[in-house]
Structure formats: C-alpha cells, structure tokens
Amino acid sequence: MARVVIAEDEAIIRLDLKEALEELGYEVVGAASTGDEGLEMIRSLKPDFAILDIKMPGLDGLQVAHEVGEDKICPVIILTAFSQRALIEQARDAGALAYLVKPFQPADLVPAIEIAIARFAQARALEEEIAALSDRSDSLSAQLELRKLLDRAKGILMERYDMTEPESFSFIQRSAMDSRARMSEVATKVISGELTPLAQ
C-alpha cells in the first residue's frame, strides 16, 4: 500500500481527496492545510508520493515540490485549478512528475500517481547507473549517452510491442537485474534486436 501526504488549503477538497485516495487503496499518512506543514510532514514521514495544491498559504505547492525534489524524498503530483501551460511548465521545472486539474475525478488519480511513481523510480535507477559509470572521465557525457540509449530502447519497445513508457523501462530494468548487467547493456541488446519481450 503506497503511502501519501497531501497538502491542500481547502478543507472540503482535502477531505474529498483523502477519501478518494483511501478508497483506491492508498494510505494517507498526512494531510496538511499549508505548504510549510506539508513540507514538514513529507520530510518526517517520507511517503511514497505527495499531492500538493499549487496555491497555499506560506510556501506554495511549487516551492514545496522544489524542496522535495532537491532532497529526492518522493515523487510529487501538483493539484491545480488552472491548466495554463505556463503553470504546468513551472510545476515541471519545480520537479513535479504529474499534475491534476481541479475538479478532478477519482479515476484521474491512479494514472497520475502511477506515472509519477514510475518516473521517480526511473530517475533513481538512472542515477544509480550513472554512479556506476562515475569512473568515466566525463560523467555528464556518460549521463547523456545513457539517457539517449535508454530513450531509443524504450521507443523501440513502445512502438514494436505496444508497451507504455513505464512498462518499457521496467522491462529494461528487470532484464538488467535478472542478467546482472547494466541497463545500458540491456538497452543496447534491445536496440540491436538481440533481446525482446517475446524471447522471455
């Protein structure tokens, strides 16, 4: 059961969100009415993900998302009544991995949550892989090289085998763990056609 902290200054929306999450099987470990309180809860409770309203007293959702992202605590989903591109871009730049526009439907929650969790896991896995390549003289070059390789491999899996992006990344990550190889090696095999989901 994934654990979540929510921060929303409107009490009715906060309660509705809490109830919807619990009905979907998530455990709400903290519910805050301000950004400052939400950030404190996230740092102390270390949830699996957080949902933050974009406009709150004190620290707003974007500021909290930035702090949480800097500390790499958990994935963040931004909740907003506004769907303007500028706000969405600000949320992305602050480190939010998904967003929901109010009024939301309970059915909208699961896709946003699962995308955010999957993207966060991908980012962590990439960091670990890059750390393993840290003996390379140019770590930035190694990072870019790895990202390009993984993007090409994911693209092939998505196009040829009708996988989603999280599914394609999970296949690469799982194959790397099973064969005790680096993800870059697995991605190369996917690109060359040596490794396919059908072969497993």
Number of helical segments with 4 or more residues: 8
What is the CATH topology assignment of the largest domain?
Answer: Rossmann fold
Global geometry: elongated
CATH superfamily membership of the largest domain: Response regulator
Portion in beta strands:
5-15%
Instruction: Specify the CATH architecture of the largest domain.
Output: 3-Layer(aba) Sandwich
Instruction: Give me the secondary-structure category.
Output: alpha/beta
**Percent of residues in helical segments?**
55-70%
Order of helices and strands: EHEHEHEHEHHHH
How many separate domains make up the residues? 2
Number of strands: 5
**If you compute it from the alpha carbons, what radius of gyration comes out, rounded to the nearest whole angstrom?**
19 Å
Provide the low-confidence segments as ranges. none
CATH class of the largest domain: Alpha Beta
Integer average pLDDT: 85
Sheet with the most strands, sense and barrel status: 5 strands, parallel
| Distance, first to last CA | 29 Å
- Order of strands across the widest beta sheet? 2-1-3-4-5
Modified residues (4-aspartylphosphate): 53
GO molecular function, one term: RNA binding
Pfam families: ANTAR (PF03861), Response_reg (PF00072)
Keywords: Phosphoprotein
